[in-house]
Amino acid sequence: MKNRKTPIALFSYNRPQHVERALNTLASCARLDECDLHFFSDGLRIEAHRAGWEAARRIVRTRAADLNATVVEAPENLGCSPSIVKHVTELCREYGRVIVVEDDFVMNPGYVSYLLDGLDRYENEPAVFQISAYMFPVELPPGQDAYLMPYTTAWGWATWQRAWQKFDWDAAGIADLLADAEAVRRFNLRGGVNYTKSLRAELERPRQIYDVMWYYAVFKHNGLVAHPRRSLVYNAGLDGSGTFSTNDPKFPQVPRASIAERVFDRPIRWPELVVLDETAYAALTTQLRTRRERKPPIHVRARHKLAIYRRRLLAWLAAAAS
Q1: In angstroms, rounded to a whole number, what is the distance separating the alpha carbons of residues 61 and 56?
Q2: DSSP string, 79-119
């Protein structure tokens, strides 16, 4: 097992503008020299995607040479979630840990440093399953820079082999969870986010949504995740360009312009105890529940609906062209 550096896995497909921006912000991250970079380019899915796919691969190859990264170009299309699972599994086995980046991320310069700190701090804490770089735009109790809470995120994260080996596409017990009202409430962050919707979708179409299955694994093992007090990543792909890319007003982000701002001006103040931070979690879930119950303005809802219809139309046109 390699232990000199931490691997960063970046995943891309056919969005050249997004992947170029992601690579630019990744290159600006502190402590990048402590990492081995691995760029994974998925294979072409349909002919209508070829122009964007070829442009994205050219950008990845060029930047890989600048950053001394390893490039893996899949000969066939695996799909977003299967590709992430496959390569995260391989890198965890080889290195014992991994940092994950997707092609639509805009990263804070402290993104990598924060994740490296968290990986080191909790490496031998079996209760901690993930270090998350994303945080909902909510007010959390002062005094700490990170909080331990019982849910995962897919927008910028890191984990270890000891935790990731709990991931299972064919995990049992999901039907029992969905039939248990109290378990559903806990899985949905006490009613703040409807994560069971994705869980039901995964049951209907298996091996499509890795992040909800990862969350289910952590939930089933009563795991904890270290979340920053303010998000270190912005998902710029919620523009109809990706597989899951509708800008749902109920799943908010910090303003994109604020992502480049300095978040930590001192050594990171991690939690002293490896236990659920009930105060922070209560504050988070209360604010998310209030936001969810408050219907967004009609123009925001209209934009969201239009984005959904646009994505469906583009998918239909692409399928017809192929």
Answers
A1: 9
A2: -HHHHHHHHHHHHHHHHSEEEEEETTEEE-TTHHHHHHHHH
Strand ranges in 84-223 using DSSP code E only, listed in sequence order: 97-102, 105-107, 128-132, 146-149, 157-160
Four-way CATH pick for 6-170+205-321: 3.30.43.10, 3.40.50.12500, 3.90.550.10, 1.10.10.10: 3.90.550.10
Q: Cα–Cα distances in Å, from 153 out to 54, 69, 78? A: 30, 25, 22
Residues 17-76 pLDDT 10s: 999 999 999 999 999 999 999 999 999 999 999 999 999 999 999 999 999 999 999 999
Q: Which residues of the chain have pLDDT under 50?
A: 244-247
Rounded to whole angstroms, how far apart are CA atoms 25 and 9? 14
Cut 0.85: pTM above it? yes
Element (H, E) at 233: strand 233-235
Token code pair at residue 144: 């700490």
